[in-house]
User: Which sequence fits this backbone?
């Protein structure tokens, strides 16, 4: 009886890191949103505000999920923003200048992601080069390539099929509102949001229930013991990078679908937002701890706070940067404290 | 247990932080008891890339102030159309009375302007124009005639070079262009390229300076390495001109209007930057075509006209002049209209 | 004998940067011999100045060389890099301008002596370094992530210090630091770098800083057992880097007498890390060679200048640099090195056996 209790207690304290961090994130998101509704009212009372946040951050959700997986397995990938820009530009050029097809552009996006994943994965996993340096070079390369493909930012205008796809809206029944003219405006989300949410669910299931998913945690938690458990550490690392870059490619396409243009300055700093979202969502930098649902809420928290800051009239551009950094700082400190406690608990 | 206590403490702190911020916010938006009477305007500025832009924003903030009966929500798009679209959608959600938009690009606005129209919010464009299928998507536009600015500048250069007796083929021009695709760049570049065709000048090269000092310097340094006989530099805004002058001086050449004796003449646009006006005074910039950024009062007048039930003109131009310290030319003539030069001293 | 000599040379840490430098020099020599021409001219105020591509490299590589000094120490001690140096340059530069110009953005004269402004910038730089250092050493956060905070917020803070205005320093003397002192044809930045190098050489020679940093980087717990305080050493390296940042900020701001928050020292963190890597220092910490890093910084500036010479657009520059970085890390990766040395050994043994067979 007591033994069982002990086991249960152990299990709880072991699980608590991931879950505790997740709970904090979700709670903070809801508190922030409710606070915004109470104190700022206006737009925040309408569901469409939330959907707008989703619409403009669908790409970030996807890339942040990839980032979480790499971080869980103990790596990092700062090339995702560059990949998103490269995908946007390549697809824009293909669709607008060469009148390409939607399928073709989608293939280009995924191919760029896969190629990035394979190269970075091999360099990190099999040649044992630091992931930061590899993806740093990857980011440089992607940004540079984007300008080499086309210097000038431009909108896709000559491809009707794409414009139709870009304009496609999925109405959410029962969530609309009446505007001041008294006309009912239905609430809507863009295709990208559906893609992002489906990917979140798939990745959540993969991480939780598949062997590969669990080996990400094992490798990130402790390489030695993962090796002893018979996990192929190199292959796991390779796959984490492959998945992350492929998601960046898909995220790039979703981003492109949202903005409809190609530009070398697209998705500037997205890698940092993705890392920040993951951390806020409870992914530990040291690896081994993290949750995709947390990442989703990390993205939402991040963009809600941006919205609050700017609709509060504090739109001097620097406030956004400073708030995000402050949030990041707080969460990092929480993590650091949690880690310390955990180490102490392990010792005693 | 301890962990949880620490975390709880931090959480509490965060909540207080958030609520503090929100209460501040509440004060700022509801401080005025007569809010019902205030006209709420959402202003999506494209960025803060140049002095011209800052002055433009400043003018808008002063004209549409609370004292004048407005509640202005200002959003900086940081040069990105996607940010501006997000901002406009937020304005629509907040049900503002008017939207003022300084667009980052000309294309890609149909959908979001359609949404504003559906929500019954009039849109006033400032500065750059938009290229939409249906002109009714926006109520009116306030701004400068950039092509006319270019034409005025080209005419000035022509008059000046004729005055000092230079053959057109000896005028070797480089153009440091603004952000490619912006209305100002298209208009000003067209003004120059038309003149090059008509007068037969030698246009050596065009590089993009993105309306910034850094890019202006970089671009000019590169051009100076490639060509050694440049004598006129056509900068599409003041910031680029300042950068270009820096590069020319760093290369050991002199700027000035005495181009017959090896000086390089710099001309520019806007006339807002204090440093550039200083340069114009001492002759480092030979001529500046003004681009009037004071759109605020104009927008205010338009909103008042709409409030009064009038239909304003679709296109509203602001008046502009030329600044120069070079003596000899007092006025120029473009398409039959005469424009006088404002001397700077 | 000969073989061991070759091995000694190729195995030396300075081998890669020197080879890279020679390679770049040869490419430039072939394409345009005028690249190496240094001419003595006069600038527009009539003072003698040296000009030419080599001078440009020495001049514009200065900030990088100074940052490389601090970055090498941080890398050695913490096994990570500081990615916030560009953003902290913006903060330190902004603080400097604030002191020099006061609240007026277009003052007639400077409001405080330049030395005071510089000292304030040093304090600000060291505070930023201390912030990063505290997160890394006390809270045990990975350096790249800890510095991510200032990387995100730095430019915003810089803009905030001056209320997003762009003050212009009116004093021509302020231009000397990033330009030329009248009468001296060599760029001032060269002297600043020399001063920094002398200081760091003296510090390394007369204190245990070098030894302690390496000890901490190689094995933190064993260094602790030997009486070194790893927390303090890590903290100290970040503060030193903060000081380097302040000096680099002085040069950067002096060059243009004003500041542009969003582009000043953009991407310089990448170049600084690259300089350390190019110098053959392990990015995972431990042993370091300061000279090698400094040389690495100039090699990168050499590469940048060369690429400009080939008319590569400044935005596209990063793609070429990325290729160089990747090739570099691949060749210095332990896995690849072992593979090649095995291959080399195989070839030589097979040759030997072939020779023996011929006998």
Assistant:
């Amino acid at each position: 009886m007591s033994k069982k209790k002990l086991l249960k207690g152990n299990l709880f304290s072991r699980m608590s890191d991931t879950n505790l961090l997740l709970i904090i994130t979700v709670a903070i998101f809801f508190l922030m949103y409710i606070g915004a509704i109470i104190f700022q009212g206006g737009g925040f009372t309408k569901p469409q505000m939330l959907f707008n946040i989703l619409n403009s951050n669908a790409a970030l959700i996807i890339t942040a999920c990839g980032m979480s997986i790499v971080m869980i397995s103990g790596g990092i990938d700062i090339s995702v923003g560059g990949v998103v820009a490269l995908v946007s530009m390549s697809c824009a050029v293909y669709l607008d200048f060469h009148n390409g097809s939607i399928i073709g552009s989608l293939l280009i996006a995924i191919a760029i992601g896969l190629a990035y994943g394979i190269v970075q994965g091999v360099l990190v996993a099999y040649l044992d080069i630091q992931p930061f340096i590899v993806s740093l070079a990857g980011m440089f390369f992607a940004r540079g390539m984007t300008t080499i493909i086309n210097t000038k930012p431009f909108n896709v205008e000559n491809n009707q099929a794409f414009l139709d796809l870009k304009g496609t809206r999925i109405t959410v029944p029962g969530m609309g509102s009446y505007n001041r003219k008294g006309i009912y405006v239905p609430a809507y989300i863009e295709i990208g949001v559906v893609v992002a949410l489906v990917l979140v669910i798939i990745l959540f299931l993969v991480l939780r229930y598949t062997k590969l998913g669990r080996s990400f945690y094992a490798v990130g938690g402790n390489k030695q013991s993962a090796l002893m458990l018979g996990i192929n550490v190199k292959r796991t690392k390779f796959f984490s990078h492959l998945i992350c870059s492929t998601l960046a490619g898909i995220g790039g396409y979703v981003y492109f679908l949202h903005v409809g243009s190609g530009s070398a300055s697209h998705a500037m700093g997205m890698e940092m937002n993705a890392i920040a979202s993951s951390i806020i969502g409870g992914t530990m930098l040291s690896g081994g701890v993290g949750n995709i649902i947390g990442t989703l809420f990390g993205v939402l928290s991040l963009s809600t706070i941006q919205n609050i800051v700017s609709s509060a009239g504090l739109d001097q551009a620097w406030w956004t940067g400073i708030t995000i950094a402050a949030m990041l700082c707080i969460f990092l400190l929480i993590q650091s404290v949690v880690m310390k406690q955990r180490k102490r608990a392990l010792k005693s | 247990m301890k962990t949880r206590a620490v975390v709880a403490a931090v959480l509490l702190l965060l909540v207080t932080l958030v609520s503090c911020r929100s209460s501040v916010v509440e004060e700022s938006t509801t401080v005025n008891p007569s809010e019902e009477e205030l006209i709420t305007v959402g202003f999506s500025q494209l960025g803060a890339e140049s002095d011209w832009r800052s002055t433009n924003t400043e003018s808008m903030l002063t004209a549409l102030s609370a004292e004048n009966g407005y509640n202005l929500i200002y959003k900086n798009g940081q040069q990105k159309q996607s940010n501006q679209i997000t901002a406009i959608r937020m304005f629509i959600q907040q049900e503002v009375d008017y939207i003022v938009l300084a667009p980052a690009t000309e294309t890609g606005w149909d959908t979001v302007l359609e949404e504003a129209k559906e929500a019954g919010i009039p849109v006033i464009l400032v500065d750059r124009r938009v290229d939409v299928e249906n002109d009714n998507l926006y109520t009116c536009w306030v701004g400068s005639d950039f092509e006319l600015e270019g034409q005025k500048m080209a005419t000035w250069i022509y008059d000046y070079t004729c005055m000092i007796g230079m053959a057109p083929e000896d005028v070797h021009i480089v153009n440091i262009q603004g952000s490619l695709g912006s209305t100002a760049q298209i208009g000003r570049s067209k003004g120059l390229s038309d003149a090059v065709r008509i007068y037969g000048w030698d246009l050596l090269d065009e590089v993009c300076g993105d309306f910034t000092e850094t890019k202006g310097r970089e671009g000019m340094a590169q051009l100076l390495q490639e060509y050694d006989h440049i004598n006129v530099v056509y900068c599409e805004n003041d910031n680029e001109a300042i950068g270009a002058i820096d590069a020319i001086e760093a290369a050991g050449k002199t700027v000035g209007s005495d181009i017959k004796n090896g000086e390089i003449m710099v001309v520019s646009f806007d006339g807002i930057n204090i440093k550039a006006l200083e340069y114009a005074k001492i002759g480092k910039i030979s001529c500046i075509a003004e681009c009037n950024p004071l759109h605020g009062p104009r927008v205010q007048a338009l909103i008042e006209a709409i409030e009064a039930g009038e239909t304003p003109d679709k296109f509203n131009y602001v008046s502009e002049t030329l600044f120069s310290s070079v003596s000899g030319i007092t006025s120029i003539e473009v398409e039959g209209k005469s424009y006088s030069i404002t001397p700077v001293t | 004998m000969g073989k061991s000599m070759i091995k000694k040379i190729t195995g030396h840490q300075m081998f890669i940067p020197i080879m890279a430098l020679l390679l770049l020099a040869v490419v430039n020599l072939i394409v345009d011999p005028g690249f190496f021409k240094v001419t003595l001219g006069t600038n527009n105020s009539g003072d003698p100045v040296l000009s030419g591509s080599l001078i440009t490299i020495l001049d514009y590589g200065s900030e990088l060389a100074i940052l490389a000094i601090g970055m090498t120490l941080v890398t050695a001690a913490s096994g990570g890099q500081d990615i916030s140096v560009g953003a902290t340059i913006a903060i330190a530069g902004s603080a400097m301008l604030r002191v020099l110009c006061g609240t007026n953005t277009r003052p007639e004269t400077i409001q405080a002596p330049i030395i005071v402004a510089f000292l304030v910038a040093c304090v600000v730089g060291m505070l930023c370094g201390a912030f990063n250092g505290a997160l890394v050493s006390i809270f045990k956060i990975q350096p790249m992530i800890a510095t991510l905070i200032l990387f995100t917020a730095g430019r915003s803070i810089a803009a905030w210090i001056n209320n997003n205005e762009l003050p212009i320093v009116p004093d021509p003397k302020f231009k000397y630091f990033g330009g030329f002192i009248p009468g001296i044809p060599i760029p001032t930045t060269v002297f600043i770098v020399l001063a920094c190098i002398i200081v760091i050489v003296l510090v390394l020679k007369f204190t245990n800083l070098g030894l302690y940093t390496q000890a901490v980087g190689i094995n933190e717990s064993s260094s602790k057992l030997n009486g070194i305080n790893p927390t303090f050493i890590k903290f100290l390296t970040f503060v030193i880097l903060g000081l380097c940042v302040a000096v680099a900020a002085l040069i950067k701001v002096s060059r243009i007498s004003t500041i542009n928050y969003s582009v000043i020292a953009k991407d310089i963190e990448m170049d600084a890390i690259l300089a350390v890597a190019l110098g053959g220092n392990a990015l995972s910490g431990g042993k370091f060679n300061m000279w090698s890093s400094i040389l690495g910084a100039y090699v990168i500036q050499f590469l940048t200048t060369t690429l400009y010479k080939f008319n590569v657009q400044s935005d596209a520059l990063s793609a070429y640099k990325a290729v160089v970085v990747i090739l570099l890390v691949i060749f210095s990766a332990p896995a690849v090195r072992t593979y090649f040395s095995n291959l080399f050994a195989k070839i030589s043994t097979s040759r030997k056996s072939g020779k023996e067979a011929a006998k």
User: Anything to note?
Assistant: DSSP finds 13 helices and four strands in chain A.
